[in-house]
Amino acid sequence: MISKDDLDIKIKALPQNPGVYKYFDKQGNIIYVGKAKNLKKRVSSYFVKNHQSYKTNVLVKRIKNIEYIVTETENDALLLENILIKSLQPRYNVMLKDDKTYPWICIKKESFPRVFYTRQKIKDGSEYFGPFTSVYTIKTLLNLIRQLYPIRTCNLNLSQENIKNKKFKVCLEYHLGNCLAPCIGAIDEETYLQWIADIRKILKGDLQQIQSFFTKQMKNHAANLEFEKAAEIKSKLGIIENYKSKSSIVNTNISDTEAFGFAKDINSAYVSYIRIQSGTVIAAHSVEIRKKIDESDEDMILFALLELRDSLNSDAKTTLLPFKIDFEVENTKIEVPKRGDKYSIIELANRNAKFFMLEKHKQIENKNPEKHIQRKLETLQKDLNLPELPRHIECFDNSNIQGENPVAACVVFKNARPSKTDYRHYNIKTVEGSDDYASMSEIVYRRYKRLLEEKKELPQLIIIDGGKGQLSSAVKSLKNLNLENISIISIAEKLEEIYFPNDSIPLYLDKSSESLKLIQFARDEAHRFGLNFHRNKRSASFTVSELENINGIGDKTIDLLLTKYKSVNQIKKAKTEDLEKLIGIYKAKLLIDYFKIKQNSNE
After folding, report:
1. What is the distance of C-alpha 96 from the center of its chain?
2. Under 8 Å CB-to-CB from 229, ≥6 apart: which residues?
3. From start to end of 203-351, where are the E strands?
4. Contact at 8 Å (CB) between 164 and 84?
5. What residues are paired with 272 via a beta bridge?
């Protein structure tokens, strides 16, 4: 541990070369490893006064010493950073979380190699292809291979000595024609290894060479009038074509290529890897990377790229990414396609990453609902740049038709869920006609004046259904109540624009973002609640106006009737003696006569 002054001197003396830097806490434990094109510039950026990320601020406060390693190139820095993160596992570095064991296809290192699927990779010189996201894909591939090549499935030790000493007998697979019995020397190892070479090409997705070889063989057999053998090979070509028709996704000229899809939420990034050979997806894998500080998208995808290329033994010559990165990666060419077949591959990878993220969200929601809600609220807080976590949200909506019966609604969300017992509707009292701005100003003022008087909890976020005008009106009411510290936004329905006070430029959230969906849910709920109230009020207004048409029936009588019978239809069905008991014989007769006359006129 060194003093703050010594730390500042050390930072100022850093070289402007590419390299790797290491941060230590006061106990001398390494807490972060990073790479840089320019060590001085990158490390200095951590020690600015404020960071938007709380986690970054915490990291900086704990840095008590710095060490660095200068490298020849930026690529060397990238590789060294990856090695150090894996070996040291610093607390504040991102970590790749891969909780699934995916199946692989193995070509076993042995005499007369077996080809089978496994979930365990053993470092014994065997070759592994994959990983695959489904066992079905593996079974399809193995079925294709076994239809083309009669390789063995037993686990016998087929050494030359054992075969020579005739230690084995043929099994049922031989009699069924599925194996040519290398156990008794019925097939030589050279021919068998040629089959394995062909199988290796199939597993790498290179079916064109196999097809060319079989086509040539078929023509030779046909030329020699060996029609049965030609028909047998033609059948194998049909099997290959059938497999290709189910697997090919893009231009078959695209080969030896890998693609990385990307999605993220507030806590993690999700990267989907796919490998393409001859236009066919031959491997797929998705991983979650847990954020520790506010890492950039570039940092996250770079980390995943190096980890996955290493763990999947990838030697793809072309790497497709959804966005540009500043670092080069050894032994592959980085491309960011904007159109065409390669762009289609990136779209597929991005879609896989998004579905993987949604799957993780669903798992968290089922296992730990509170954690799921916390993440949603943290995402909303970040997207809207709110000072507090919006656990309490209120949304307002006005409702009127041609200025008649203007009403408003306020719905309340607590912990991202509707709190229906807290919903409120309002009759507009001070505004005549259709004036959305004045109506919004009135209900916002009334709502929070009452909450202040009753000393009840205030929301962390207010949502207004409407554009800049409605928002400005609501802000004036908050200002009059000295509540300018409450965050407030509006959402304009046409383009789903998010407006902030004193800012004419709207925010456009991604259509699929959880934040926008939560805001829309609150807005739609306020609209529904307000519309129901408005509909009921219009219905009541119509009922009252109809009863007012009856001479001799006053307001008090109307109130009595509607309190008991709720609607005109129910009043019509009421028994005469019940009406006489409620409003008297004379008024009951007026009522009955009115409805009889009206019925006769309608007829």
Report:
1. 17
2. 221
3. 257-264, 268-277, 280-290, 318-320, 333-335
4. no
5. 261, 286
Give the residue from 318, 326, 327 showing the smallest Cα distance to 345.
318
Alpha carbon distance 413, 459 (integer Å): 9
For residues 355 and 134, what is the distance between their CA atoms, to the nearest angstrom? 15
Specify the fold of 549-602: DNA polymerase; domain 1 (1.10.150)
**E strand or H helix that includes residue 238:** helix 227-247
Q: What are phi and psi of 69, to 5 degrees?
A: -130, 120
Q: What is the mean pLDDT of residues 429-458?
A: 85
Sequence-separated (6 or more) residues with CB below 8 Å from residue 382: 266
State the Rg of the chain over Cα: 37
- Tell me the pLDDT tens digit for each residue of 375-423: 889 889 988 989 999 999 999 988 654 445 567 889 999 998 999 888 8
- Ordered by start, the domain boundaries in the chain are 4-93, 257-365, 381-537, 549-602
Q: Tokens in use for 225?
A: 């009038």
- Second CATH level (architecture) for the domain 257-365: 2-Layer Sandwich (3.30)
Task: Look up the CATH number of domain 381-537.
Answer: 3.30.420.340
The type of residue at 383 is D
Beta-carbon-side half-sphere exposure of residue 399 (alpha carbons within 13 Å): 25
With residue 505 as reference, give the H or E element that holds it: strand 503-507
Q: Do 140 and 243 meet the contact criterion of CB atoms below 8 Å apart? A: yes
CA 18/CA 75 separation, integer angstroms:
9
Element (H, E) at 66: strand 65-70
d(C-alpha 111, C-alpha 190), whole Å: 11
Tell me the residue length of the chain: 603
**pLDDT of 267-286, one tens digit each?**
888 999 888 876 777 777 88
- Domain spanning 4-93, CATH architecture: 3-Layer(aba) Sandwich (3.40)
Examine domains 4-93 and 381-537 and report if their fold is the same: no
Look at residue 353 and give its three-state secondary structure: helix
**126 DSSP assignment:** -
DSSP state of 457: P
